[in-house]
Amino acid sequence: MGLFSFIKNAGAKVFGIGKTTEEEALEVAVIAKEKALKLTNAVETLGFEVTDLNIEVTGDSATIWGQADSQATKEKVVLVVGNTEGIATVDDRMTVEIPEPEAQFHTVVKGDYLSKIAKKYYGDAMKYPIIFEANQPMLTDPDKIYPGQVLRIPAID
């Protein structure tokens, strides 16, 4: 005798254990809907004013629809969704009631802190409260940022 190769998942269908392709697809769809619902709840819990908010999750991607009351709200919603474990990309399809200039975004790296980021973008480390306030309520403490987190950096006059 020798070594034989088989289709690994074929046995699951014969013995009634495991899942069929259709069952797996349904499970993936249910998980995606659950993730979307949790993301929607997270956005609503933070009190952002978005009319007709709709979030769809596919794999590690999220798509957001709705009308935000301001550009800042729109950007914060994107950050809430994007800074969630398991989400790698966000397709922002939201609209804004009153158009405003878009903020810049900064991805935190090891060794970053808000005053260092403020120095980079504003030329003044003491303007870190602007960044902190621009990222509330997601940030609760100016000293609690982490590598990989994306922050809003609003324009200042």
Relevant terms:
four-stranded mixed β-sheet; two-stranded antiparallel ribbon; GMP Synthetase, Chain A, domain 3; 157 residues; 2 domains; 5 helices; alpha/beta; Membrane-bound Lytic Murein Transglycosylase D, Chain A
What do these coordinates show?
The chain is α/β, with parallel strands linked by helices and 157 residues long. The protein folds into 2 domains: 16-100, ANL, C-terminal domain (GMP Synthetase, Chain A, domain 3); 103-157, LysM domain (Membrane-bound Lytic Murein Transglycosylase D, Chain A), CATH 3.10.350. 38% of the residues lie in helices and 20% in strands. The chain contains 5 helices and 6 strands; from the N terminus they run H-H-E-E-H-E-E-E-H-H-E. The protein has helices spanning 10-15, 21-45, 71-82, 114-122, 128-134; strands at residues 50-58, 61-68, 89-92, 95-96, 104-107, 150-153. The longest helix is centred in the N-terminal third of the chain and has 25 residues, at 21-45.
Secondary structure layout:
Elements: H1 10-15, H2 21-45, E1 50-58, E2 61-68, H3 71-82, E3 89-92, E4 95-96, E5 104-107, H4 114-122, H5 128-134, E6 150-153
Parallel strand pairs: 2-3, 2-4
Antiparallel strand pairs: 1-2, 5-6
Helix pairs in contact: 4-5
Protein name: Potassium binding protein Kbp
Pfam family, one: BON
GO cellular component, one term: cytoplasm
